[in-house]
Prior knowledge:
CATH class of the largest domain: Mainly Alpha
Distance between the termini: 43 Å
Largest sheet: 9 strands, mixed
Number of domains: 3
Amino acid sequence: MSTNIATQRSTAAQKPGLPKVVIATTAMLSFISFWRAAAIVLNDLGSSAFYAGAIAEQAIGKAAPWFILAIMLFAYAVRSMYIESCSMFVRGGVYRVVKEAMGSTLAKFSVSALMFDYILTGPISGVSAGQYLTGFLNELFGRLHVNLVLPINSTSAVIAIAVTIYFWWENIKGIPESSGKALRIMYVTTVMVVVMIAWCILTIWVRGAHLPPLPTPANLTFAPDALGWLRYSSLPHTIALIGILIGLGHSVLAMSGEETLAQVYREVEHPKLPNLEKAGLVIFIYSFVFTAGVSFFASMIIPDSVRPQYFGNLISGLSMNFVGPYGLKLAFQGFVVLVGVLMLAGAVNTAIVGSNGVLNRVSEDGILPHWFRHPHPRFGTSYRMLNLVVGLQLLTIILSRGDIFVLGEAYAFGVMWSFSMKGLAVLVLRYKQPGKRDFRVPLNFNVGNVEIPVGLGLITLTLFALSIMNLFTKQVATIAGVAFTLLFFTVFEISEKITLKHGAKHQELDMFNLESDGELSADALGVRPGNTLVMIRNSNALYNLGAVLDRVNPRQQDVVVLHLRVLGRAGSGGNELTREDLFSINEQELFTRALSLAEKRGKSIHLAVAPATEKWEGILRAAQNLQSSTIALGLSSWRAMPDEARIAGLAWEALPEPRPQLTLEIYSPSGQETVFYLGPHAPRLTNKEIDLLHGIWLELSKEVAPEELHHHDIVHLALEELQRDIQDGRRQEIIDVLRKHLSDIRTCRVPIT
């Protein structure tokens, strides 16, 4: 299908002869198993286990574990709502689902609340990581008799600021998220959880324990701050339902992170929906055992008089109250802190990535001006949005002074209202789009031709009941959340009007004929085998394209200019990709600059856009599909050239057979070219190596005469001897010699392999 599309809808865009851009919608995506999908979500959701139980107990008393348990069960129902949303292929997370169901105004309100959630996710996770690390350091100082006690809140705030700034810089540079990294973190976390549960059971068996008090009205001891504007009312103590809703409202932090499930859906491998359901089940079991288990075990093992001092680092307190020698408990606490910092720091990054993705989505819809999405001159990332988000997160950390309870109270506002609006949107879509769904939230009944979605209705009703109750009981959350949401909503409304008013701003950009194709192929682009694939990303750094155009004769070799749209999880949440998802004003500007370079040199280029979830897998699969012989890149802004080539080589090894032999050219801004070869290839020998080989050949050829000896026979013999030595136990000796050789030639080595 071919359609003329441009950012400015003008008659000029309909004339023939527009430059063609082929947009592949499926070819470069790499898919992940449901285990990896579950790991990604659990890195976000599981991080709440480190602080949710303590915050709930501080607010509602010793019965808090039962409310955490109830929230974890309810989270499974909320997860089914997200799975139904994914099954409808409505892309864009909360924003796009609500917009599809109830229009732009409520969508902007929902995304404003979601932004409040994201703005607070980073600070609360960073501060929690700081609390665990500071608590461990103080414990260690005491053990070593060091007369130093770090102030918990202040030190935690400093650590949170450092972590936030670190991930801000990582995102500015454009370093992608990794499902493999998330899975490795969950491996380590699982080891910690298994050891923790086993040690908890041993401790209870040795000492004995009692379950926390049941959540009856008599056992609910609300802190004054936990009742908010209801602290002067008798309703929380006389009406059981209100008391239960207040308790659940203070425990909802335990299910933060559900939006990540919708964001990761696009990456799940076939069959998508069954695998998403499996991931949801894994997430439920793991979070149920981990989050609820921590809360129950802490209540049963840590003495009531001691537990409050560990509210900021509850799992550390649990580890220090196990049976066993102090040194072993301190070592396990160190392990807990390591895991906690890894997970909580990952949640900081997820918050930055998520909020950046949401803002990019609303900007693409014209709600925010293109100025916000203007790429970084060096890294090509939407740095202005990142600066805005991280600036607000740093301000939040400073204002909270590292007090995790203040952050926890405020955090619940964004979580609950984004859930509630999502639930209402999915409910409305049951009637606006009543067609067949691959998955529906259970408990549906039909009265005549009308469907009554009882299950979905109860979930939505419960979410709104908790959200409304939190308005009255969480003063800080209500004031801060309403103010923040209204501020963002107002900004969205005003900027949308300004953007529409100045809609003709980008008329100087070229128009393109967008041609959708499911796969990127040589036939789709009309190029010959052996073409050069030039990767472009930043319109301010097209020097690699310029260098290729200077040396290539298009009559003999085609030049394909490909922009790889590396898709993050944030702001997605669907399956199918459209032209609008892949070709925005940024791509239009990028290809306008590329065409300008080609026109100045009087040479033709072929333009394409393709999505990918991993950079090098996407590049190499594109080269394989296009039958390219050469890949031309610019310098990475954050990875050294040898590392870039090494990672490219590893990705080449993972390609399906038959793997093509490829030349990788990496250009510097000065025009210097460094060449690497991907796949088996004859090495480039230096003059010294050639002289050495020839000398050996001269010496040995006399000895084996009259047999004919060739230079490659010498190489063959040397390689077989080297392989035999490695297998005969001389591996370390050879590695040491090789390292010495590499060290000796480092200063004079030409970076060509």
